[in-house]
Amino acid sequence: MEEISIIGLDLAKSIFQVHAVDAAGRVVLRRQNKRAQLLALFTALSPCLVRMEACSGAHFWAREQSKLGHDARLMPPSYVKPNVQRGKTDAADVEAICEAVTRPNMHVTP
To answer: What pLDDT does residue 110 have?
Structure first.
């Protein structure tokens, strides 16, 4: 697998959407993961930026990913929404998260 630079993560009740890009912005990984398999995925990856929309469960997942060496931070949903290029789906949201992270004035919360 190519070196992952940024991971966008959309949190849900049971199925999480993962979108990863390399340093050049090319899509390296696009998949769905069940809740029980998510930490195993992040354990297998080398440390990278992990960004997700702030929500009730996001703080827990950010702490768990930080323990694994990832730079996990939260973004307000209002910062992600302008980057959604098509309908409101989990796949479109994580793609927009990866896009929003590259913006020079993007503010995130640890």
So the answer is: 64
19: its two tokens: 């979108």
Dihedral angle computed from the Cα positions of residues 50, 55, 60 and 61, in that order, rounded to the nearest 10 degrees: -30
Per-residue model confidence (pLDDT) at position 85: 63
User: pLDDT tens across 1-32, in order?
Assistant: 578 999 999 888 889 999 999 988 899 999 99
User: What DSSP assignment string belongs to 45-87?
Assistant: SPS-EEEEE--TTHHHHHHHHHHTT-EEEEE-HHHHGGG--SS
Euclidean distance between CA atoms 32 and 34, whole angstroms: 7
All structural domains of the chain = 6-101 (3.30.420.10)
Report in angstroms the alpha-carbon separations of 6 from 13, 75, 87, 89, 100: 23, 14, 22, 20, 11
CA atoms within 13 A on the CB side of 45: 28
